UniProtKB/TrEMBL annotation:
It comes from the Bacteria. Gene3D superfamilies: Vaccinia Virus protein VP39. The keyword Transferase applies. It comes from Catenulispora yoronensis. The keyword Methyltransferase applies. This is SAM-dependent methyltransferase. Keywords: Methyltransferase, Transferase. Pfam families: Methyltransf_19. GO terms for biological process: methylation. GO terms for molecular function: methyltransferase activity.
Amino acid sequence: MTDRTGAHRVTGAAHEAEPLFDDLPPNIDTDVFSVARLYDFLLGGKHNFAPDREFGRRLLAIEPNGRMILQQNRLWLARAMRVLLAAGVRQFLDLGSGIPTQHYVHELAHAVDPGAKVVYVDNDPPAVSHSNYILRDSPNAGAAHADMAESERVLAHPTVTSLIDFGQPVAITALAAWHFVEDKQDPKGVLAEYRRVLAPGSYLALTHATIDGATGDLVRDVQSQYQSVMKNPSPRTREQIADFFEGFDILDPGIVNLPAWRPDKPQDAENAQDVWFYGALGRLAA
Ligand SMILES: C[S@@+](CC[C@H](N)C(=O)[O-])C[C@H]1O[C@@H](n2cnc3c(N)ncnc32)[C@H](O)[C@@H]1O
């Protein structure tokens, strides 16, 4: 339902009370679960609906640290973006972008250089339309609907070709996303296809769920929950994730639990093992 101001309000007994907000695209199905909106819910955002929140609460019952882990994912992005922007990178291709709110790539990049180019890629149509709605006043950013495991399609997408110049360095960022590419889709081979089009000075920034460490069993429980709503997510070991960086030099401190990656203060890295996501940044080898 749309009110006089054009803002969108969801009504009906099946829905919880919905916040009124004015940046929801028209014609999106709020009754269908979306992993992008789940992340928004866990991050405390307002771009989510009853099915997303219901699943989010089930996840939080299994992993009460869920919100904290996703906040750490955003904090990791901010630190990695500082490195990338300081290195002069001004083009970002973000794979599995979800809904880009709460200090995501374009906000961080444009805070430093409004001319920086950012393309978001997601295979979830509501997430893409939501993203393009949020970006409607940003000529240097756009969202593409594509399967990130199909590199040729992504690279040929008009939003990508119109905004990204592969003759110049590009940072490929994939935050909490590459674990949705299953082994049978050859995630390492796909990343190599992206790598082959990158110019020297390009980067790969990944955060990825892991089954390493004491939290391994917990992660498997979370994985089973996900299987009820989407295809098989694949948390991986450090070794498997290292393999994705073939052709890149992994910068210090390597592939580590998110809070342990270049913490702003040493105490920020305390209890890093509770965050069962690794983060790593690689620079394209010369
Ligand atoms: C968990 S969210 C992470 C969103 C964002 N990167 C972040 O860190 O907040 C993962 C996103 O990846 C998307 N995704 C999963 N598989 C994908 C695929 N094969 N191609 C493109 N996007 C995909 C989902 O739709 C979802 O929006």
